[in-house]
Design brief:
Layout lengths: L3 H31 L25 H26 L6 E5 L5 E3 L12 H6 L2 H6 L24 H11 L46 H5 L5 H10 L25 H4 L9 E3 L11 E3 L21 H10 L7 H7 L6 H12 L23 H10 L19 E3 L9 E3 L2 E3 L4 E3 L21 H11 L6 H11 L3
Helix pairs in contact: 7-11, 9-11, 12-14, 13-14
């Protein structure tokens, strides 16, 4: 048993030890505080990358809420841009498409204040650029959300697919931007090279996976029917798939080729080309028609593909996923077998014909007994002063080549709603047969009417057409 004296000594020694440790801690703390504060080095700036982000860290519900909340402001910004560039009124020209939809008329691109088209055309490119007089509607047109991009469908297409297939192509982040009256007829008529005697074989219906067999069994051979089935079958695509970074509210079966190329034509659906980086330099693309595909020899946004089969395979492997095979693997790429599936799809596409042009002869030019004086004068201009036929040769009005219009001669590079408007680069000479059925015009849909298109090329080619000559040229284009 310890004595009271021994116990007191032990307590005193423990107290001294505690005090010593406390003092040492205080000295260490003071020494640490006297040292300069060392911070982590700043994170390096993000390097440009050719790839999309594969690993998604944001919960889908958070993405949905965030992008849905931003939707109204994005669409308001795009509406303001369109209103600043164009007269968007519904003003028919008097001409109609095959099934009766009015063709919009008049020049819709707005001029700079105090300028006329004639005065503008009298100026040189350098003068227009220096004085910033190039009409805004002639500049490249951005996607409604250029930083996001992706397939975007007009509402009439969305509604009809919902009705027939219960498949929803609504995006929770964006709406389509161009008014319906500037878009092609819907549903579009369908003409077959193999059965021209039948005329329009669509029956006024949108061709879908639900009705194609009843519509075409007996008109197509088994290979072509199978190709059509594949063209109407939805496969995963960048915005419409089952992953958490989709842009459809519910997991989606995907998109079919003929969702954009409705009835083998076009519904005006838009996208961004997949072959340019960084994102800000990518071009908007207006869905081209598949009519007359059998006479075309260049495919893809850079026309690097030489056959319909190449293009069909490329669309599934790359274009559906913005040209990124890494993200395609994640979202559900659908490789097609070249010898049968791709060939069958291409064979059907090659059957799609141009609409009838009753005023044209077998050489693709006007029959003088059927055309009026204005149309004949327009044809003379097309093959002469207006220089159109340099690229658009009869009878199909294409040379199957690429041409660089060098529109950047007329304006200084600028950012427009998240897109760098710098240049267009080489673009394909699309066939002009049936051109009045395929608004809007140019590769990105920036030209809403044929009159806009005539004014654009009159300026770009510096042909200095008179007002009467421009009207005659437009009249000719409507006969093609």
């Amino acid at each position: 048993m310890k004595t009271p004296t021994a116990t007191g000594s032990a307590v005193a020694a423990f107290a001294i030890r505690i005090a010593t440790l406390a003092a040492a801690a205080a000295i260490a703390a003071a020494a640490f505080a006297a040292q300069p504060v060392l911070s982590h080095p700043p994170a390096p700036p993000e390097r440009p990358t050719s790839y999309m982000k594969v690993d998604i860290t944001e919960d889908f519900g958070a993405t949905l809420a965030r992008m849905r909340a931003a939707r109204a402001a994005l669409m308001q910004r795009q509406r303001e841009l369109l209103a600043q560039r164009y007269d968007l009124a519904n003003r028919p020209s008097g001409a109609t498409m095959f099934r009766g939809k009015p063709v919009q008329g008049g020049v819709r691109v707005k001029l700079p204040a105090g300028m006329s088209w004639q005065r503008l055309a009298d100026l040189g490119a350098d003068d227009i650029r220096a004085r910033d007089l190039f009409p805004a509607g002639f500049l490249p047109l951005p996607h409604p959300n250029h930083a996001e991009g992706g397939m975007l469908f007009p509402q009439f297409q969305i509604d009809e697919l919902k009705r027939q297939e219960q498949r929803d192509l609504t995006r929770f982040d964006l709406d389509f931007d161009l008014p319906d009256h500037f878009l092609p007829e819907f549903p579009a008529p369908i003409f077959l090279t193999t059965r021209p005697d039948l005329g329009d074989v669509s029956g006024g219906k949108l061709l879908t996976i639900d009705n194609f067999h009843g519509m075409f069994n007996g008109l197509l051979n088994p290979k072509q029917l199978e190709g059509l089935r594949l063209l109407l079958t939805p496969f995963p695509q960048q915005q419409f798939n089952q992953t958490e970074d989709r842009r459809a509210e519910r997991p989606s079966r995907g998109v079919a080729c003929l969702d954009c190329h409705a009835n083998g034509h076009s519904n005006g659906a838009t996208h961004l080309v997949g072959d340019i980086r960084p994102q800000i330099f990518r071009h908007r693309i207006d869905t081209p028609t598949l009519r007359g595909l059998n006479i075309q020899r260049l495919f893809g946004s850079q026309r690097a593909l030489k056959t319909v089969e190449d293009f069909t395979e490329f669309e599934q492997r790359a274009a559906y996923f913005d040209g990124d095979p890494v993200i395609a693997t994640k979202k559900g790429i659908n490789p097609l077998e070249r010898g049968s599936q791709v060939h069958f799809m291409a064979e059907f596409q090659a059957l799609l014909d141009f609409p009838p042009a009753p005023k044209l002869g077998i050489n693709g030019k006007l029959d003088p007994n059927k055309a009026n004086d204005s149309e004949l004068r327009g044809q003379a201009l097309f093959f002469g002063k207006a220089q159109c036929s340099i690229c658009h040769a009869a009878p199909y009005y294409t040379d199957n080549l690429m041409h660089n219009l060098k529109t950047e001669r007329f304006y200084k590079p600028r950012i427009v709603n998240g897109m760098m408007a710098a240049s267009d680069g080489p673009i394909k000479t699309f066939p002009l047969r049936g051109i009045k059925e395929s608004p809007p015009y140019l590769h990105d849909g920036r030209l809403l009417t044929l009159e806009d298109t005539v004014e654009f090329f009159n300026l770009i080619l510096e042909t200095r057409l008179s007002e009467k000559e421009k009207a005659d040229l437009t009249a000719f284009l409507r006969t093609l």
